[in-house]
Amino acid sequence: MTRRALQPLDITLRHGRRYQVIRKLFLGFSVALTFGLPLWHLHALDVEGAGIAADSRWAHLAARLPDSPPPFYGAPTSVWVGVLELVDPLESLAVALFHGLSWNWVWTVLPGVVLVVLLGRFFCGWACPYLPVLAAANAARWVLTRLGVPLKDVKVPRSTSRVVMVGALVVGALAGTQLVPLIYPPAIIGREVFRAVFYGSLGAGALVVAGAFLFDTFVSRAGFCRSLCPGGAMFSVLANLSPIRVHNERSKCTDCTVCDVICNLGQSPMTNTLDSGCERCGKCIASCPTQALSWTLAAPPLVQLVKLRVEGVEAKTAEAKSQ
Amino acid sequence: MNRRVLIGAIAAATALAVVPKRARANPKKIRPPGALKPGAFEQACIGCFRCAEVCPTNCIRFPSTLSLEQALPFVDTADKACVLCMKCTQVCPTDALVPLKADPDVIAKEVRMGVPVLTRSKCLPWNGQGICRLCYQVCPYPEAAVELVGPQKAPLFHAEACVGCGLCEEACPELAQAIKIEPFGSEAAQPKPIPGRPGLKRPSEVNG
Fold first, then answer.
1. Is residue A319 very low, low, confident or very high in pLDDT (cuts 50, 70, 90)?
2. Range(s) for CATH 3.30.70.20 in chain B?
3. Per the confidence metrics, is the pTM higher than 0.80?
4. Under CATH, to which class is B27-110 assigned?
5. Closest CA to A224 of A235, A215, A237
6. How are the residues of chain A apportioned to helix, strand and coil, as percentages rounded to the nearest 5?
7. Site from A104, A178, A183, A215 to mutate, B interface, most B CB atoms within 10 angstroms
8. Among residues A147, A190, A203, A280, which one has the least CA distance to residue B61?
């Protein structure tokens, strides 16, 4: 029997179980919201025949309708949680391209951006409703490989997602329409679940998600999230400022490549070369057999660069003074 | 970036540019209350479904066939009418629906979803088939948007005061189906020449 290449499902998670449990609970909460809110609102807000009380003007409408919008509504890319408005930064940017900046826009986009700048691209690993689909694709790959089906794993360059992002913004701006929600899986899934629950049908977006699943299964492992997703590209851009990093203590590392294999986003924790594309899922840390990996707080690269520069200038001025 | 990626990106961009053109070629639809003008609305809406989610009567729909239409909300007044609660405008994250208060005066001033088109040949009172008045009774703006004329109490619509909620279309008896809300500014809502009266046009199609 020929040796198969190592796959994520072959790897056991050893450490940091609590982190993984919290992450999966959060993900479960996000997915539950995605599927639960439509069901709940369909039930709670349906006012039977509200439009046709024959002897009425406004009184019956005011009496029978809820006073304010519900405390929870929306889908992962555009959700209202109690008092907090969380809208996807990329979709907000696309709207701002047409309608400019306004205070309402700022309040809408700010909470999400602050979270991403602090925590990095956490949405992709903690909340994206595409993750169950990705897990299914990874499982399908594992099963198919076991059955002896040869599967490709094309390494599409990760910069492609930035091309997709800029392309969607530019083409959308030229065509006078919003393209991002049509190709961005969390936005599509949120919408399609609502559509399925409310009207019992699916739209063209379902085809995009199905296509992404097939792409992830047969062409490239986690290829959509890694190299095509425009929203992920936007998160990566913002996450450049995030101080949370995975650090590999090289003296403990045995170069077993487990962490590189388990990473869905093509990062390389083994060689300590993680960039802003890290989704903070912590699976590399959990999978490391020698506990060489750990979370660290470090000044983000941009700040480090400025710091080095300032130090350099200070050293030069000190030199000049001493002379 | 290598050349293959660039060529692929350009091809994808071209393909994507065709999609919205197709979407724009589709006939206009009735948008939820407070919607920006056609054109600006397509640019501002991210299709997040919040408006349909909070709509108490489920009158806000999304294109549900496997079409390549942009996912934009519309109101299907023939099936369910808008009750003008203005929840959808209050939850819109991008102001594609401008936030409005559920105040009759504000709504009368700001909301223009569509115009009512009455086919008199189907309307019961206009044909001497009794007194109906259903449209008048459900109208949120009776007298201003619809008044009853003549001994048969036949409805006479005034498009300029109508918000286009569609309650009248929903209430119109199944056997008559005389009222149709047409999108504001659409072909059917334009003034049309009167047959046999050359040079004369009806001021608007609302009582056609």
1. confident
2. 112-208
3. no
4. alpha beta
5. A215
6. 60, 5, 35
7. A178
8. A203
Q: Is the ipTM reported for this complex over the cut 0.90?
A: no
Q: B138 and A204: CB-CB below 8 Å?
A: no
Domains in chain A, number: 1
How many residues would you count in chain B? 208
Cα of A323 vs its chain's centroid, Å: 54
> What residues contact A318, with CB distance under 8 A and at least 6 apart?
none
CA distance B201 to chain A (A): 33
Task: Give kind and range of the element (H or E) at residue A33.
Answer: helix A17-45
Query: Would the pLDDT of A63 be above 80?
Result: no
Q: Would you say residue A61 lies in a domain?
A: yes
* Nearest Cα residue in chain A from B91: A69
Separation between Cα atoms, residue B115 and residue B92, nearest integer Å: 24
Q: Which domain holds residue A56?
A: 18-238
CATH fold of B112-208 reads Alpha-Beta Plaits (3.30.70)
Tokens encoding A14: 């050893």
- Find which of B36, B53, B95, B146 to mutate to test the A interface (most A CBs within 10 Å of its CB): B53
What pLDDT was estimated at residue A23? 93
B18 and B169 Cβ atoms separated by less than 8 Å: no
